[in-house]
Model the fold of this input.
Amino acid sequence: MFLLLAGLLMACGVIPVTPNDFPTPPMTIIVEIPFMPVPTVEPRTQPISSADMEDARTFLLILKTQIAAGDDYGFAEKVYYPAQAVLDGQVTTFTDSESLAVNFRAILTDKLFNAINEADE
Done:
């Protein structure tokens, strides 16, 4: 019985692992610079696919909530820059979220507020 127990303990013993027991990870060299799109003031006119519609509805709900709550900075963080808006009767280009957030209440007219609130899709 003792020999059987000793044999089991030796067979199930811990085998020390060394770094040489694992294969070396493959090395991938990046040979091209990743493409970064250039910001533009042109509107994106492509329709939302049916697969992305639920995400679009959630995004619209978040925007409506932020506007209603007066979270100008939260709204401004979601805008692609540069962005253009009418401010004091002139088209103004905003290059960052800080400048848009500061002027957001002047940009958000009653007509725009109602259009965003009534937007369904």
Observations:
- The mean pLDDT is 79.
- The longest strand covers residues 83-87.
- The chain has five helices and two strands.
